Amino acid sequence: MKRENLENFIRDYGKDVYSFCLYATKNKEHADDLYQQTFLVAIEKDEMDENQNPKSYLISIAANLWNNQKRKYMWRKKKANVIYFQDENLEQLADEGLTVEDEAIREDEIATVKRLVDELPDKMRIVILMFYMENMSVNEIATALKIPEGTVKSRIHQAKSRLKERMISYEGQYGYLA
Amino acid sequence: MKDNMDILLEKALKPDIEPDMELNEKILNGVKHKKKSLSYKLARVAAVVCGIALVSPVAIYAANAIKNSKVEVSDHGISVGGQGDYAISDEDLAKPWEDVETEEIEFVEGDETVKWLTKRVEVVSGTYTNTYYAYDNYLDAITDAGLANWFNTTYEMYESVTYIHTDGGDFQDFCVDASLKYNDGNFFVSESKMTGNVAEDASFGLCLTNTGNERTYTSSQGLEFTLVDEVKDGETTTYVIIYYDYYRGYISFSNLSEEEIHQVLDTVNVSVVVKEPEATEEVESTEEVIETTEEPITEEVTETTEETTTEEVTEATEEPTTEATTEATEEVTE
Lengths: 178, 334
Description:
The complex is a heterodimer.
Chain A: H1 3-25, H2 28-45, H3 54-72, H4 87-95, H5 100-104, H6 107-119, H7 122-133, H8 138-145, H9 149-168
Helix pairs in contact in A: 1-2, 1-3, 1-7, 2-3, 3-8, 6-9, 7-9, 8-9
Chain B: H1 4-12, H2 21-28, E1 47-50, H3 65-68, E2 71-74, E3 77-80, H4 90-94, E4 102-109, E5 118-124, E6 128-135, H5 138-145, E7 157-167, E8 171-182, E9 185-196, E10 203-207, E11 211-218, E12 224-232, E13 235-244, E14 247-253, H6 258-266, H7 283-293, H8 298-314, H9 322-333
Antiparallel strand pairs in B: 1-10, 2-3, 3-10, 4-5, 5-6, 6-7, 7-8, 8-9, 9-14, 11-12, 12-13, 13-14
């Protein structure tokens, strides 16, 4: 792969891949590693094609790398290290491109959803991230993770149900979901 | 059709986090600043370890974690330790293992200055190193690896004794695999100690097939073991998992009677070393330690630990007799 092409891929999809890595690993150091590994694997395979949805391709690599790694060793940190929960990130999120809809979603709601997603079992979380964060289709996720489409749908459904259940406990605070 | 939860999730999970510029530069320059492969294999039986976490100082505590760690038996193996997300599921145990690429970078024979017979270093997947030291004596390997002797008697080597040191960057693993003689048969023991980024409640599992006949045996030392049979190619092998804090491992028996298995287990006398909790953040494990010290065997274990294990752990080295090893390497190179 030419350096110029790689630069383009990093520029166009770096943020998507890194966000996924960070949310998947829940740890900056491990996200850095996973992010690098993802691009290095992509470089090694040299199969990235601008016309073949490179973002999905990269996310698939990242998801599978992470699945393989955590299967053998799962990481755990006790310190508060989930940097995407930091206030400045939330402010940044809230300030960017505010629409009427955005305004309706309060900062604390977003923070709560992030935390609840973070608490999901890994298999559900990965699928949720691929679907909502990376806008991958059910078919793309199924292909990437080598699981049936029905399993993908089931995990999304279960994850949403679980999130809704947890959100209901905030009912007074979240009339939004009612 | 999108519902409110869909919209909320889309808003909450915007991929808006930029990687550091430095990180991208390193990719572009083809340099991986801290590549850590986490794949790992034990000899004989594939093992799964879950729980890599922050490091805290090592100290000696009395505990009897074997009694407090519930062994989970499933169709595809046995596991112990870990809670919630850190527990090993049957699905985890059932997943096929991927081949890893290894490259041997060094092989030397030992001399009179070292206890090992041969040393072989391999790089696995280009990311971490395994160093294999072959011995003809179990106690020598255990001592060099900085591990505790799990047995209160001496068993002779049957086929092989290997000390494997894994250098994974921010974690180290010290493992001794040995097949040892007993009566007319033999058994296999694998003992490991992991240091570095390891959670105190890391879980450990063995990937087996066709598990069954789960039973327990309380040894003459008062330790309760869970025995599980694996039937493979018409042969039955009995596994006993041993796990406490940094130490993990198993003993497998394939040609010993149940009575002989019990006799071997009667000689198991583990000393327990647990990680000292950091005052600011390890409250949970402090409580665990307090609880475990209330176990009946505490005093006995405390004595053993303080007298024997402290020095062994403190003196645990990454490479046995470093100077001698270097010399041997140079000689061979020349």
